[in-house]
Specification:
405 residues, four-stranded antiparallel sheet, globular, mainly beta
């Protein structure tokens, strides 16, 4: 439903809910700080220090060579996850210390760098050719123009963990209390809010919003996917990706905690302790579902759906039916990112900053590249450099790495 909240949000709203994010802090209290590379802020129930990640073995005969095109740095992510945005021949990236920077997409040359907020950032980046948007732990939305000059600020009801989405003249922001806010990209005027109730326990959610053809799609706790009209926030449909199961609140977590993906006429998502599903984008009717648990995410191409499951196994499903095709288990507990399908490979990063390339056809290892030794939690993004297929990743140390195939 929509609501007409006042522009001033009480500070207590950010503390009102006993979020599950607090529970792992207790459970992991004896396992080191939150900055530990073994703790994935996209999945607080990842391996931690109790299960040893699989050791990597040398690749004796890699079949895929990917070369580093350029690199840069924007500062550490700390316990947040930042995703670079690509728009208008530029790459925009941010760090937890408040840095926001722009780089030429082809050469990596820095165009500008600003301190977006001295209090620090927690989410970003969303961008189009006219506006660049980031979020703060205090629920502030900060918008800048393509030259790095601040355009406007707005307030949402709680911490922002997911990168804002800029689409069709609007900025969509998900707050950590599962509200979706829409602002005019030109001046920051609030246009609508969507909110829904949530279960007692939920994952700390960095899943964002995607949009296409006037509709925004977002996954929620309890395994629900909702399609909203971009113009007014009206619900176009609601569908169930996963149903909560189990006798305890912990067992019944079935949250869509990663960003859905759109491909053709379908929108696809995966839930933690639930299922992966592809739905008809116009009606929400399921095309297929498959039991698999993931907090990292899903990728789709013309033939396959790829899921990084809760143990960091890579699972391949048939695009049209959801039939299981192969499963690569030699990267277990390495806190793999969501995958990216590019060419003949599936790309994913791990908690030590390695990028792994698997065969789309059978999951065999094709190649591997190191970065800066820190975790890659945000999904690799499709890119192009000098006409070559490429991808970009951002590490938790704030490194930007662009590789060509």
């Amino acid at each position: 439903m929509k609501t007409g909240m006042s522009d001033a949000f009480p500070a207590r709203w950010a503390r009102a809910r006993p979020w599950l994010a607090a529970a792992p802090l207790v459970l992991l209290a004896g396992c080191g700080s939150l900055a530990s590379s073994s703790i994935n802020p996209m999945n607080w129930f990842s391996s931690g220090s109790t299960i040893k990640p699989t050791e990597l073995t040398p690749l004796t005969s890699p079949t895929l060579t990917f070369a580093r095109a350029w690199g840069a740095s924007v500062g550490e992510a700390k316990v947040f996850v930042f995703t670079p945005a690509l728009s208008g021949g530029m790459v925009y990236a941010a760090g937890a210390d408040g840095t926001l920077a722009a780089f030429d997409a082809q050469s990596g040359a820095q165009k500008w760098r600003v301190v977006a907020d001295r209090g620090g950032l927690s989410a970003g980046v969303g961008a189009d050719d006219n506006v660049v948007v980031v979020g703060t732990p205090r629920g502030e939305v900060l918008a800048f123009d393509e030259t790095g000059r601040e355009k406007w600020r707005a307030q949402v009801s709680s911490e922002i963990l997911a990168a804002p989405l800029v689409s069709e003249g609007r900025v969509l922001v998900r707050s950590s209390d599962n509200r979706i806010f829409a602002f005019a990209a030109a001046d920051g005027k609030r246009q609508w809010i969507y909110q829904r109730s949530a279960p007692a326990l939920v994952l700390r959610n960095v899943g964002g919003v995607v949009a296409s053809a006037g509709t925004a799609y977002v996954g929620f706790p309890g395994g629900k996917m909702v399609a909203l009209g971009l113009s007014n926030g009206a619900v176009r449909w609601e569908s169930t990706v996963a149903l909560p199961k189990g006798s305890t609140e912990l067992e019944r977590i079935a949250d869509i905690s990663s960003t859905p993906v759109i491909s053709g006429r379908e929108v696809c998502a995966v839930a933690y302790q639930g299922r992966a599903a592809c739905l008809d984008a116009s009606s929400g009717q399921p095309a297929w579902t498959r039991d698999v648990s993931s907090a990292a995410g899903i990728a789709i191409d013309t033939r396959y759906a790829f899921v990084t499951d809760e143990k960091s196994a890579m699972v391949a499903l048939a695009r049209g039916t959801g039939t299981s095709l192969w499963k690569q288990e030699k990267l277990l507990y390495r806190s793999l990112s969501a995958p990216l399908s590019i060419g003949q490979a599936v790309i994913a990063g791990d908690y030590q900053g390695f990028i792994h390339a698997l065969s789309r056809e059978d999951g065999s290892f094709m190649g591997r590249q190191p970065t800066d030794g820190s975790a890659i939690y945000a999904p690799p993004q499709l890119f192009s450099v000098a006409g070559k297929d490429a991808f970009i990743v951002q590490t938790q140390k704030g490194g930007l790495f662009v590789f060509t195939l």
